[in-house]
Amino acid sequence: MRIDLIALDLDGTLLDPAEHISERNRRAINRALGRGVRVVLVTGRGVDLPIRIASELSLNLPVICCHGALTKDFGANRTLVHLPVPLQYAKPMVEYAEANGLSIAVYAEESFWRLEGSKVFMDDMRGPAWREA
User: Fold this and answer.
1) How many whole angstroms separate alpha carbon 81 and alpha carbon 103?
2) What digits encode the pLDDT tens for the residues 7-24?
3) Please, what is the end-to-end C-alpha distance for the chain in angstroms?
4) 61 or 132, higher pLDDT
5) Is the C-alpha dihedral spanning 55, 61, 66, 70 positive or negative?
6) What is the pLDDT of residues 64-105, one digit of tens each?
7) What is the pLDDT of residue 8?
8) Please, are residues 56 and 21 in contact by the beta-carbon 8 Å criterion?
9) Where are any strands of DSSP class E within the chain?
10) Do residues 122 and 130 lie in contact, with contact meaning Cβ atoms separated by under 8 Å?
C-alpha cells in the first residue's frame, strides 16, 4: 500500500516544547517528500507558527489550523475553507467568557482577537495575526 499524504500535528508531535523540529523528524519528512508523499500541517494553533514551520520544511500544501476551522494556502495567500461559529452561538460564548473572567480567542477577518489583558498562553499569540480588543 502506497502512502499518498501525511498529516502532521505540531504541538507534542512534530515540535518539541521549544517549538523546534528534531533532525530525525526533518530527515523523515524529507524522505517522504522525496518519495512523492504530500505532507500537510494540521494544528489547533493560529496561522503564525504553521506559516513558519511550512516555510522551514519547504512544504507547499495548504495548512489546516485554528482547530480545523481554517484551511489556508499561504503560498497564494488564499483562504480555502473557513468554518466560523455562527454569530448566534459565538456571541453568548464570548459574553460568558467575559462575565466569568475566562480567556478567549476569536478568529475573525483574517486576524485572531483576544480580550485586552488576557493571558498569552503561547508565543505565537503575540504574532502579527493577533489583535486585542
Assistant:
1) 26
2) 999 988 899 988 899 999
3) 50
4) 61
5) positive
6) 988 888 899 988 889 899 888 899 998 999 899 889 988 888
7) 95
8) yes
9) 5-9, 38-42, 63-65, 70-73, 78-82, 105-108, 111-114, 130-132
10) no
Q: Residue 99: exposed, middle, or buried by beta-carbon count in 10 A (0-12, 13-18, 19+)?
A: exposed
Q: Output the average pLDDT for the chain.
A: 87
Three-class DSSP category at 68: helix
CA distance 45 to 41: 11
CA atoms of 36 and 65, how far apart (whole Å): 23
Question: Can you tell me whether residue 1 is helix, strand or coil?
Answer: coil
Dihedral angle of Cα 70, 38, 122, 102, to the nearest 10 degrees: 30
